[in-house]
Design brief:
single chain, about 950 residues, mainly alpha
């Protein structure tokens, strides 16, 4: 008994128009395929019925027909698609057909159809580009359900060439921990396309796989062992199958996909790979003209290394490492040096003894021995690898290399104390940059090792590093003497690079100790000399410290100009940490100048390029400053936490610790946590403000004083207020004001302390405004003008100056995006009934009786609840006061927080107090503004 006939869905049945039997040939769900007679018109009739059915389906709705993997479609499907594109004329129908361009080789049957469709006006071809690195990173994050490591992203992006399918397969390989570099299924898929090529083409593909990312045609011809006609025919087959591509300059060939090359290379037998690489190396040694001269050293090193010929490979790899260093390609230099270390024991002794340090090393100071007869040592390579890893941002690797070197020196009974001191000095900086410690213990071991030894460059380096450490971690007058001794010692030895480093430290210490002009002159002189000598590290350090010192003196515009020059210099040399430091300094100066968008960009750049913890922590702090000034408390808190994480628990540098105290005070004040403001301030004062660090202390104390003034009148803030203000005053008395910018901060702090005690007057704020006005500090000036306008209005004086101050300050706050300041200014203007857009075109002002609480959308009950929240009451106390349940009180509090756009009760209380929701603008007994 046959099964009952299947009923088509209603819409599809109506669209079939009674032709279900015929249409079932391509839509089996419409019924059984009929057995009727066939003729020459059968196909055309079926195609016509299909077109009309689609038009009826799309008559009153949008229909999307999707055909995937068109490169696998059979002939009939391609004919149907061609017919539909040419004949469909009605209905809201979209046909989407996809295919993989890599699979459509030159003789693929889909090519004629694509050419035909390109000529139709109704068809649009959309080329989907391969994923860029950011898109690959997002794809990996989605697959792995976590943020991938950046080095892993780089590896997958390079291997996949941005192909989404390859990315997915490589991620699956990582998750399943497959031993080989590629999953077996993916390798088989990639090799299938190679295995269908003619034998000669397969052979050429295997040779190209070992030749590098691109193989020049003359080199390929020398290695392939084929006649030119045979080689060209083999290449034509490989290119036609989309395995190889001709390079844009037409001089060579490369794989279309890196993973195909990887799969082909992995498929070679060990002896086969070594033989191919040997033939490449011998061809290059026999004819220098086969490839570009600039690539010869690097390529030759790779070929000899993979040919497993240690005697040939070791000198070639070392020569390539020197070439990489000269190009500032430090990561490539490190990889080559690690290959040299791997080859060291395998290379014949006579080969090793013929190598000389003068030919292959640069970082370890001269040993005082005859360079013509002293052989290269393994420790020389470890020293080179340490610095290459540090310069390339691979500090973990550098730390491991120093450990290996120190272990070798310890195992050697007659170990070289100078070499050991050099590695301990390197290790000191690495430990500090990785936030594993402050580096003093390691530096102390280096100092012990050089004690009593004859003068040497290593000794000079240790002295310079110790002076620099003291400047950063233990500021004081004794550091200047130590730095000047280091300069004299290095000068005596003729080690100018070390001398310049010491002079940078001297310049900074002179500026910090109260002799800024002399200090800056020394730093500028070092910058010019280092640049002339091509000493990029020293020139970069001079830029870093110059920009910082100029900012500390209030010369922000000069600092920005110098920072821009420094970034350009360091970009060419790939000294990423130095570039990050200068970018971070630039962000600080741009913030001061009110160029906040540029400041954010510079800070993000510092965060992106920085490799070690400190510059990344500093960049995070800069972004936190910006978020705090713009009223973005959640962002500010997150960036502050990131800064703490970068700096770690071992970083004791005041230049890092004090800004974090300042940010913590600002965040706590913004959230209405006055107790936490006082705790952070007290901890900062107890930590101390060392010599030269007044630039961090003044903003911190000013933020604390402003928080106390803003909290005046809050019940929770009354207890302990007097002690907090006394502590701020006491700390300020010990601070220096060597330049106008810090004199202005001192004046601002004095006025804020008076405001906290309700004793400030217009004259106090006029003095602040006058001190800040010439400084190019627009945000600080807008804040001063806000307070001056407020006191002018509260005193009942002339309203016109106050109106002008408000308009200028509001325009600045609006341009900067300083939301909280803008809101405070708008509230003050509304209460005083003053326009903010100029007296000539005053805006419509709210009625005098407008209730601020109602303007915020608060109901009468929510206003009562907020008043009690601001007084510091709990939900239970609010419930008892208002005769409601604690649960109802909790609901009211949640609604209030949502309407005010704040995160907690403290922030809500602070906002209510700041907006004066429950208090008049003027003190008791004073006349209201304008009366």
């Amino acid at each position: 008994m046959p099964p009952p006939p299947r009923r088509p869905p209603g819409a599809r049945a109506a669209a079939a128009g009674g032709q279900e039997d015929e249409l079932a040939r391509i839509l089996p769900e419409l019924g059984d395929t009929p057995r009727g007679p066939h003729d020459e018109e059968s196909t055309a009739r079926l195609f016509e019925l299909t077109a009309r059915m689609l038009e009826r389906l799309a008559a009153d709705r949008t229909v999307v027909l999707v055909l995937e993997d068109l490169h696998w479609a059979d002939t009939s499907t391609r004919h149907l698609l061609s017919y539909l594109f040419r004949t469909l004329a009605a209905g809201r129908l979209v046909i989407v057909a996809t295919y993989r361009a890599d699979d459509v080789h030159r003789r693929h049957p889909l090519r004629p159809l694509l050419a035909e469709l390109d000529r139709l006006r109704t068809v649009q071809r959309i080329e989907l580009p391969r994923f860029n690195r950011a898109e690959v990173r997002r794809q990996l994050a989605g697959i792995l359900a976590s943020q991938p490591d950046e080095a892993y992203v780089d590896s997958v992006f390079d291997r996949s060439d941005g192909n989404a399918f390859f990315v997915e397969e490589l991620a699956a390989c990582k998750e399943s921990s497959c031993r080989a570099g590629l999953p077996e299924s993916l390798r088989d898929l990639l090799l299938v396309r190679v295995e269908v090529l003619p034998e000669a083409a397969q052979r050429v593909v295997r040779i190209v796989a070992e030749g590098g990312s691109t193989v020049e045609y003359p080199l390929l011809r020398a290695v392939a062992g084929l006649t030119e006609d045979e080689l060209i025919e083999a290449l034509r087959a490989a290119v036609g199958a989309n395995i190889l591509l001709a390079t844009p300059d037409g001089d060579g060939f490369r794989f279309r996909h890196s993973l195909v090359r990887e799969a082909v290379s992995d498929d070679l037998l060990p002896g086969e790979r070594a033989r191919v690489n040997r033939r490449y190396a011998e061809a290059l040694e026999g004819d220098d003209s086969l490839i570009r001269a600039a690539e010869r050293v690097i390529r030759l090193a790779a070929y000899w290394y993979h040919a497993n010929d240690a005697a040939k490979a070791l000198p070639a790899v070392l020569a390539a490492s020197v070439a990489a260093r000269r190009r500032h390609a430090y990561s490539e230099q490190l990889r080559l040096l690690e290959r040299a270390l791997d080859l060291w024991e395998s290379a014949p002794q006579e080969v090793r003894e013929a190598l000389r340090p003068v030919d292959y090393t640069d970082v370890y100071p001269p040993c005082g021995c005859d360079p013509a007869t002293t052989p290269l040592k393994r420790l020389d390579l470890l020293a080179e690898a340490t610095v290459a890893a540090r310069f390339g941002g691979e500090r973990e690797r550098a730390l491991k290399i120093t450990k290996t070197a120190l272990r070798l020196l310890e195992e050697d009974g007659d170990g070289d104390p100078l070499r050991a001191a050099w590695f301990w000095t390197e290790r000191s900086g690495l430990v500090a940059s990785l936030a594993r410690g402050d580096g003093w213990a390691e530096l102390g071991k280096a100092q012990e090792l050089v004690k009593g030894l004859p003068p040497s460059q290593v000794h000079a380096q240790v002295l310079v590093r110790a002076a620099g450490w003291g400047m950063l971690h233990n500021p004081g007058p004794g550091n200047l003497d130590a730095a000047e001794r280091a300069v004299s010692y290095a000068r005596m030895l003729g080690a100018e690079d070390i001398e310049l480093n010491a002079r940078i430290t001297v310049g900074c210490l002179l500026t910090d100790s109260g002799d800024p002009e002399r200090g800056l002159a020394e730093l500028f002189a070092v910058r010019e000399r280092a640049t002339a000598l091509g000493l990029v590290m020293q020139a970069g350090r001079a830029h870093i410290n110059l920009t910082s010192q100029l900012e500390g003196m209030g010369r922000s515009r000069e600092a920005v100009e110098l920072a821009e020059q420094g970034v350009e210099l360091l970009k060419k040399s790939r000294l990423l940490d130095s570039e990050a430091w200068i970018s971070g300094n630039m962000a600080e100066s741009l913030y001061s100048l009110g160029r906040w968008d540029e400041a954010a960009e510079a800070a993000r750049r510092a965060l992106q390029v920085g490799q070690s913890a400190a510059p990344r922590g500093s960049a995070s702090a800069r972004l936190s400053y910006l978020a705090l000034a713009r009223g973005e408390l959640t962002e500010a808190t997150g960036r502050l936490s990131a800064a703490h994480a970068h700096f770690g628990t071992h970083d004791s540098q005041p230049q890092h610790r004090l800004p974090l105290f300042r940010l913590a005070v600002g965040v706590a004040a913004g959230e209405g946590r006055i107790a936490d403001v006082r705790t952070e301030t007290a901890e900062a004062i107890a930590y101390g403000f060392p010599l030269g660090h007044h630039r961090y202390a003044w903003p911190l104390l000013l933020a604390a004083a402003s928080a106390e003034a803003d909290a005046r009148g809050l019940p929770a803030a009354e207890a302990g207020r007097a002690a907090a203000l006394d502590a701020i005053r006491g700390a300020a008395r010990a601070l220096a004001t060597p330049v106008p910018v810090w004199t202005a901060h001192a004046e601002f702090l004095r006025a804020e302390l008076l405001r906290a005690e309700d004793r400030d007057r217009a004259a106090d704020w006029a003095a602040v405004e006058q001190a800040v006005r010439p400084l190019e500090r627009p945000y600080l000036l807008a804040r001063a003008r806000h307070r001056l306008a407020e006191t002018l209005l509260a005193s009942g004086g002339d309203r016109e100056p106050a109106a002008l101050l408000l308009r200028e300050a509001h325009a600045t706050a609006d341009r900067l995006g300083a939301r909280r300041l803008r809101e405070d200014l708008a509230l003050l203007a509304r209460r005083a009934r003053l326009p903010l857009t100029g007296a000539d075109t005053p805006p419509a002002l709210p009625a005098p009786e407008t209730d601020p609480a109602e303007a915020l959308g608060l109901t009468s009950r929510e206003r009562d609840v907020l008043r009690l929240v601001a007084a510091g009451n709990s939900n239970r106390q609010i419930a008892e006061e208002l005769f409601i349940s604690p649960k109802t009180a909790s609901v009211h509090v949640s609604n209030i927080l949502a309407k005010l756009g704040v995160a907690g009760r403290g922030e809500a209380a602070a906002l209510a107090h700041r907006l004066r929701l429950f208090a008049p603008l003027t003190p008791a007994g004073a006349a209201p503004p304008g009366v």
